[in-house]
Amino acid sequence: MTTRQRLNAQVGALPNPLVAARAMTSPSTPDRIEDPVIARGQRIRTALGLVGVTWLLLAYPLSDGRQDFVLGKLEELLIGCAIVVVAGVVAVALCVLSARPPLRRVYARRVAGPLKALGTLPLGVGVAWLMLAARRGDIISMSDVGPHDITFGLFGGTLGTIFTGLLVGLLFVAAALVCVAVLVAALLFTLTAAYTGLNSCFRTGEVHELLPALLSPLLVWSLYAFQLFAGPDVAAPPVVLHTFSLAGPLSVSALSLWEIRRLRTRYGITFGSLLGRWPQAR
Fold first, then answer.
1. Contacts of 4 (CB under 8 A, 6+ apart)
2. For the whole model, what pTM was predicted?
């Protein structure tokens, strides 16, 4: 192994918030059907959506400032996550309760994956909040420590107190740097988990392959309704705004319908198999 390969291996072994977030929010059930054509279609739709949004932002000025725009997008992301969380919990609960007894136990065992994915958001937000509180001194500050002499008078009371104060100050500076590093990692973890979790509908596909296709349209149409009340992000003509606003929900809905049809025709996965009314062809 060369020096470069050893360095790459060592870097890859380091804690990576992006890898951890994707690992916790990406489906990982070995017996789950994953159609490469469906995955490719989803990636293409996402790429086209990003290209369209980028062009819109470059072609027209923002309605508000950049900070308001970023905060607005973060708010939409959190709302989208809340919608998927609520809808996912309801959908999984309905699957467990409505399915026939043999499938109820299967679905109940598969709930662990979605629960783990749902736990990433409060975990990331909680760590970020804790680091912000520590950085502001809400947990402990220099004034809480007070003057002390850890040398027990070896250098005299005054010098010992000054030495202790300098040491405590250095410790607080080091702790502040650690807090900033952990805060950045927590924010990267939360944003990655939110993005990956939304794409996978927080691993609800591990319970049944149809659930992501059923939940995705609900998410995008809910966000569309929210944007109608929130106002446009850019100062563009109404025709352009309505076209771009409807393109996302319509494309996601069409892709979901195509996904449901492909799962039925290629793999025999239907609503009947979801509820255990008749077996699905694997």
1. none
2. 0.71
SS (H, E, C) the chain: CCHHHHHHHHHHHCCCHHHHHHHHHCCCCCCCCCCHHHHHHHHHHHHHHHHHHHHHHHHCCECCCHHHHHHHHHHHHHHHHHHHHHHHHHHHHHHHHHCCHHHHHHHHHHCHHHHHHHHHHHHHHHHHHHHHHHHHCCCCCHHHHCCCCCCCCCCCHHHHHHHHHHHHHHHHHHHHHHHHHHHHHHHHHHHHHHHHHHHCCCCHHHCCCHHHHHHHHHHHHHHHHHHHHHCCCECCCHHHHHHHHHHHHHHHHHHHHHHHHHHHHHHCCCHHHHHCCCCCCC
Model confidence pLDDT, tens digit, residues 7-34: 445 445 556 888 888 888 888 777 777 7
In whole angstroms, give the CA distance from residue 260 to residue 178.
47
Scan for tokens 């076209």, then name that residue.
243
CA–CA separation, 109 and 28 (whole Å)? 14
Q: How many residues does the chain have?
A: 282
